[in-house]
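Structure tokens please, single chain.
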Amino acid sequence: MRLLVSNDDGIRSPFLHALVAALRSAGHDLCVVAPLQEQSWTGASKCRHRPVASASADHGLGVPTWTVDGTPADCVNIALAHLLPGGPAAFDGVVSGINLGLNTTLGFINASGTIAAAWEGALHGLPAMACSQDLSFEEWRDLTAGRLIAEMPSTRATVETSAAHAARLAGELPPATGREKFIVHNLNFPNPCTPVSEVVRTVPALVVVPQLFSPAADDGTHRFVFSDAIDRSPPGLITDKATVAAGHISHSVLDYTRI
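Here you go.
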């Protein structure tokens, strides 16, 4: 498989590096185009109101690599139009991730830059996968504060195992999907993830997400404050949220033709 790889946590993300290493080990032919800086929670937005710069650079991934100082959607759009010889016709799919944290439930999927990068691939007619990793708050806090994943052996082992699952599924899901189907395969890996973790077909949990911003401060501004979703899924629904919590790999098929 010839794959375009991107993410929303930026080119320096150790989870991106783990994914690229696993995809290469599985024999896939890769190009990486990722944001220069973290672009979490940007959804499918594009930088309409400012110029966007791209640059080729060696970031130790061992494959042709570019950065874009824009959103994940910018990355994939610019990559397929201007950076990669042959454009979409030369590629078999887009793989985005691995994200630091889950991208589950209707409350968060549309806000995800990781899923948006995959969706941009689907808009170019390519089958696409988005990959995300469950983390404890402590793991997420330490990683986003700059702690090296080499200092976190259990986290590193889980991410490398999740990446191996992603590499295997990258050889299965895009060929089975085909071109111009407007489908994103949304994969969420449990913590811990093991070589025998089961892949379960799921649907996004039906949630409400109130109060993601603080009350106005004295200067009239509001601050983002993460709030967990309130699950309103009916009993018996096999959801992404519950599946990951049960220790399985969630595979939701986001079919954008079903509107």
